[in-house]
């Protein structure tokens, strides 16, 4: 079980009900968190596939998706296990929090250091979005 835990919170803006998290376009990968069950950083892992290092976004889902997930890891940020393309993850569960869970080890896979240096962008949405 990961032992380093960090929570980041965002305050809701007046008239807004959701927040969306998107990995930056560069560097590649800008999202990469290790999973005991992943052999490559070229796919997403969610929920029970994330056991080593992961982020937790309560009921996070790709914009427009019906798949609500809680944990995300691998080399792609998506709510679909084994996805090969990033998607913006929307969170409409307040308070907006992202938990970062790690096992405190820097792992190397395919020459890329994971669980280190993740970057992203956030954007709020009004209720009708």
Automatic annotation (TrEMBL):
It comes from the Eukaryota. InterPro entries: CUB_metazoa. Pfam families: CUB_animal (PF26080). Residues 11-112 form the CUB domain. This is CUB domain-containing protein.
């Amino acid at each position: 079980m990961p032992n380093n835990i960090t929570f980041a919170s965002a305050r809701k803006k007046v008239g807004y009900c959701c927040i969306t998290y998107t990995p930056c376009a560069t560097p590649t990968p800008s999202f990469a968190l290790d999973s005991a069950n992943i052999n490559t950083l070229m796919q997403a892992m969610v929920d029970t596939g994330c056991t080593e290092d992961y982020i937790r976004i309560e009921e996070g889902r790709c914009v427009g998706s019906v798949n609500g997930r809680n944990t995300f890891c691998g080399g792609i940020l998506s709510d679909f296990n084994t996805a090969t393309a990033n998607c913006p993850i929307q969170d409409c569960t307040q308070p907006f929090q992202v938990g970062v869970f790690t096992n405190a080890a820097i792992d190397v896979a395919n020459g890329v250091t994971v669980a280190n240096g993740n970057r992203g962008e956030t954007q709020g949405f009004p209720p009708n979005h």
